[in-house]
Records
---
Amino acid sequence: MPVVEFLQFTLNGIVFGMIYAAIALSLGLIWRGTRLVNFAQGAMAMITTYIAIEVIYKTHSYWAGFVIALVAGLVLGAASELTVVRPTKGKPELNAVIVTIGLLIFFEGLAGMLFGGQFRSFPTGFSVTGLKVGGTALGISRFDVFTVAAVLLTTLILAVVFRYTTAGLRMRAAALNATIARLSGIRVARVLTVGWALAGLLGALAGVLVSPSTFLYPNSMDAIFVLGFTAAVIGGLDSPVGAVVGGLLLGLTLSYVSGYVGGSVGSEITSLVALGILVLVLMVRPDGLFAGARMRRV
């Protein structure tokens, strides 16, 4: 039935859209403070997902792996900023871009050496059996519901932290104007490290949530990163709300295209559609749909 198909495609689009939103949020956290796109974000998420699966196999506990992945994301994000990105401060902007690309290559190569290049199935914390309402299949599982809830809850927590806590206010001040924030006594360098750590956590969350659907291998997060970046551009890299909305819009659009076109053609054309959306937004509103009238300068 057309209505049932539309419902299934919509729910599936929301699930993947929230994963794109998590990547978009992680990119936005770094962009707001440094005006830098971290091209290694997907690779960092992949590494933390490998750590999670190793913990799961050893402890036989999905939740132990889930928590360790988030902690590993925090540590990896902070360590990357402190050891590799910070030394590029004050140097040509291209240096930092090249460094993040270098991190991407390093992490993917490291994953291949440590864990091998074969595809690995990632377990889930909840059943993947499709849910039904009456006799109607919804096309999503309990784990998909958990995916949406986890990203929404994380987004809500970050929103509360940024708006109502001292640490969040400092991060917002540093993002708005680093010079004034520094003169006000805010340790901007430390704030940027915290931003990278939170971005690492969000990337780890996205990696753990999407890997049961895509399998895990050294390049498994490359396509997800591209789609997350597209979602961030759609909503605006400066806007957390835009990241979520951009992720949902992209997820729904790709789900409808893939579902209604169908077959191998549908899966191939989604990449072209994503590219077309990215180009269109950059041409019509390059700062994103939710960007302010004037882009802040740091």
Note: The longest helix spans residues 2-34.
---
Amino acid sequence: MQTPCSALRVVRREIMAAVRRAGVGVFLALLAATSFAQEKTKPTAQPEPPSVNTQLPVNWLYGAYIPKNAPLVALNGRERFKLYIRQTYTTPGIYIKTGFFAMHDQLRNTPPAWGDGFPGFAKRVGSNQATNIIQNSFTSLGQGVVGWEPRYDRCRCEGAWPRFRHAFVRNFITYSHNEKSIRPNLMPFAAAFGAGAIGATWNPNNPTITVKGYQSVITQAWVGVIINSIGEFAPDVKKKIGRHKD
């Protein structure tokens, strides 16, 4: 029977292994910061940019968003890097995502070679955390290089259906550097494929890299729609809960 001390050692060992696997994420973040630093500064004649409070909010559940009443302003390199750090390391969202998928894999006993006990769960937590860090790093790097919008902008419209349609479509399109032109939101899906393929290298029984990659792309498709929808309607739910409390 496993003691609490041995269980803690297992968790600590798996987390350290995850950090080593995700070292590429830190490296990519440094590359992204270097790339971002090359961006041109805005002319001094331009007005002061909006407050960070309206341009860099990161919700603990659904990530980075732009409030409905805030202007859509392109981020500079420093802001992009700060957003990357918040979304990848310092807010609970990525850890919630890790826990959710680790529990899902645990219930399905995937991969079977890790077993269905606590050591297997610890390995699934470490594997999912490393994969999420790599995916976030790839996404931030790609969006920073091309200057595309990394945040979700809440719909400036009324009605449940138009707002849900906006949340759905925004998972597959984004804005270019001028915050007006539409671009296909390729980076999160390319990053999902890359992270899934890399994660396959440390999974037992050597699963097919391409299969793991496209499975991650499919997951990104439906998870992205759900997260956008939560980000779109969460303020309404919060207001209704507040009214009931009053």
Note: Residues 1-5, 22-49 have pLDDT under 50 and may be disordered.
---
Amino acid sequence: MNRLLQIGFQVVGHWMLSDGEPKLQLNRMQDETNLLYAFVVDGEVKYIGKTTQPLRSRMYGYLKPGPTQSTNIKNRANIKSVLERGRIVQILALSDNGLHHYGDFHINLAAGLEDDFIAKLNPEWNGRLLDGYKSVERNSSQAEEPDGIATAVQSEVQHQMRGVSFSGSESIPENCFILKLHKAYFNSGFFNVGVSYQKLFGDDLEEIRISCEDLPHEFTGYINRTANNNRTPRIMGGALLKRWFHKVSHLDGLVLVEVTSPTSIRFKKYA
């Protein structure tokens, strides 16, 4: 997902479950045309598509697919399956700014990039997985503790760590907490925020800047407040955060999270 955000994709909405059926919420770009769009689950790109229709109209095709629209039928089933497992399907979009030309001819950005994105990202729902590839969604749905258990464990770790010194002599400030890297967090690059700290974070779908100790550049994730039943934030850092977890710690290891603003956090190693 971070690769898409870095080249200009924006989070424009999400799918949710209402009375057992998928429901669409679009917050921006509803009426824009010539778009590339993506469906993302827990930071993993599941589907890449393009549309010359207004985005709202294209998404309606997934809500109410016709009997011969096999792609719409398949993706509606995929979306519903993810939502029924308590996860959220984010919708990202990249608009055509009209600046790309070859001589006098306009190059359609969506048409030009779609195939290359699919080839490089191999989204599961596009049906182009490489041999041996395993989706994070399948792994994490089996590995992650239920939200209540994960929050309880994290709260207990935070309680035990209050007053513990770091960086030599300082006690942990109120805007910091210790995160235990449960299997799903460690393998997928996201984490749930405990109830005690959830007010420090921004709103659902807001982008969040993430910096990590020993990494020269920050990167962008997003805040998901619909994945957990109590609407505590799930911070989606994706592959870059996962790699940092693997570099500095281990499964069930501890890292320090410093909340520097509602939309920015910093990770530090924890001895």
Note: The chain has two domains: 2-132, 144-269.
---
Amino acid sequence: MNGDTTSRRTRGDVTWGLLYPMPSKKQEPFDAYAFLESANLDNEVVTYARGDVVFSQGDPCESVMYLRAGEVRLSVLSRGGKEAVVATLGAGEFFGEGALAAQKVRLESATATMDSTVLVVPKAEMSKLLHSQHAFSDRFIGHMLMRNARLEADLVDQLFNSSEKRLARTLLLLARYGKSDVPLQVLPRISQETLAEMVGTTRSRVNFFLNKFRKLGFIEYDADGLTINPSLLSVVVRK
């Protein structure tokens, strides 16, 4: 059997790296926040409460952001007023990197889904760092490649998998299952409407499948939020 776990496909159902594409070699831990803080950049740390808008679609694209703590949702609004959630980011991830690709305005909106702390790095400073600090540049490029692979996996998920499997995968991703750090045991409160937007289905279907997952013991509801059992992965890999 091939040891490469970055791609796994079956006819009629596609599982792309299961959840997160797995790197072929384990990288040493790299504290990007500590590095950016010690680099004497003209940056700033901004805190956001749940529901606060970090930036809106159409805003000037003048900085790259690093999510130190919390969670941020990226969404796009169509001309007809329909919103689509394109990604949910956790601590340790960059966003707003379109500034480095000569984007003049933000192509999506970023909203804090829980109390969050964001390090804002001006575009010129970030570009200078990437050219002069090779270790940091390597980690940033690795991050972008992983993000691109995640987007490809999301597209494959939308094209080939049922809404039940898409919901299960979304819940596992929100719990950071499959990443090198410790998965979250309890997800912050997230509405069924938001889950429906992320999965690409209706709220009623999300409600139906959540109740099904709960009865099967894959998830639990309590006052603190939603607890995800790793056994939910069986829904994703099921043929």
Note: The first helix runs from residue 32 to 38.
